[in-house]
Amino acid sequence: MTCAVMPEGEPFFSSGGPNGVLLLHGFTSTTSTVVDLARSCAAAGYTVSAPRLPGHGTSVEDLMRTGWSDWAAATEAAFDELAGSCERVAVLGLSMGATLAVHLGARRSGIAAFVFINPYVKHQGEEWDELARTLLEAGVVTYDSIGSDVKKEGAKESSYAQTPIASAATLLEAVKTVNDQLRLITVPSLLLSSTEDHVVELDNGDELIAKSRGSVERVWLENSYHVATLDNDAPLIESSTLAFLARRFAA
After folding, report:
1. Is 238 contained in some domain?
2. What's the whole-model pTM score?
3. Which of 6, 20, 31, 41 is least crowded, fewest Cβ atoms below 10 Å from its Cβ?
4. Which residue range is the domain that position 207 belongs to?
5. Identified catalytic residue from 49, 95, 158, 167
6. Partners of 190 in beta bridges
7. What is the CA radius of gyration of the chain?
8. Closest CA relative to residue 18, chosen from 39, 48, 56
9. Taking a C-beta distance cutoff of 8 angstroms, is the pair 185, 207 a contact?
10. What's the CATH code of the domain at 54?
């Protein structure tokens, strides 16, 4: 049974000008991590969409019934809807949202630019796949939450208290393909990287720079952890993103 959507998990859409921005949240999280940035993009005159990915923003049981193919399909549908009313679209992704953004770039042409915030684009190693298999075979279906990696005092991410292992395993498998798809990126990207991240290793950003065929502008976030959009560097993320988008849409 599908649970009601959390107040923090509602999708966001704002109709604006001919240029669109698609914002994608991370695994086990909600649109609350990107909604402030979405509102800033809307205030700048863009048409903005921040969809709720399947299984997210309701209950961990809902997420257990979904996987990579569901999240990728929802991302493509949201992009197609936005592209249907916009001349150009930029795509922003946080964590797994960035994984989905790269995959989207391999399946849809005409993306104007990318903004990646602490992206997950590099597989951690086969031992992670083996660990997931071992746990599932032992009947363990969830492990501890990966949410709320935030440095800011009092800030908390709206995310699940557990992480479903089977769903996570589909992401582990998908990122291998996504890593190869990095070479298909030919447009400019903005990369926002926290100097301390307890969820995604810093070399994910290095991997993106090394394999992308488009230019990559990197901004370091020195006072934030993984969920940087809710952290101390949120104003820097906003100003850097809006300045980058303005340059790209003017090009």
Report:
1. yes
2. 0.94
3. 6
4. 10-250
5. 95
6. 115, 217
7. 17
8. 48
9. no
10. 3.40.50.1820
Amino acid making up residue 212: S
Domain total of the chain:
1
Largest CA distance in the chain: 55
Active-site residue (options: 62, 149, 197, 233): 197
Q: How far apart are CA 219 and CA 205, in angstroms?
A: 11
pLDDT at 68: 97
Give the integer Cα–Cα distance in Å for 223 and 79: 32
Kindly state whether residue 41 falls inside one of the protein's structural domains. yes
Phi, psi of 247 (to 5 degrees): -65, -45
Q: List pLDDT tens digits, range 151-207.
A: 998 888 878 888 889 999 999 999 999 999 999 999 999 999 999 999 999 999 999
Active site residue 197: yes
Q: Is 132 helix (H, G, I), strand (E, B) or coil?
A: helix
Asked if the structure places residue 2 within a domain, the reply is: no
Q: Is 226 a catalytic residue?
A: yes
Q: Please give the mean pLDDT across all residues of the chain.
A: 93
Question: Out of 159, 189, 226, 231, which one is annotated catalytic?
Answer: 226
In a domain, 83, yes or no: yes
d(CA 131, CA 56): 24
pLDDT of residue 131: 76
Here the tokens at position 208 are 């993106």
| Element housing 129 (H / E) | helix 126-137
Task: Name the pairing type of β-strands 142-144 and 162-164.
Answer: antiparallel
Contact present, 229 and 37 (Cβ < 8 Å) = yes
Give the Å distances, CA to CA, from 114 to 64, 121, 131, 150, 207: 29, 14, 32, 23, 15
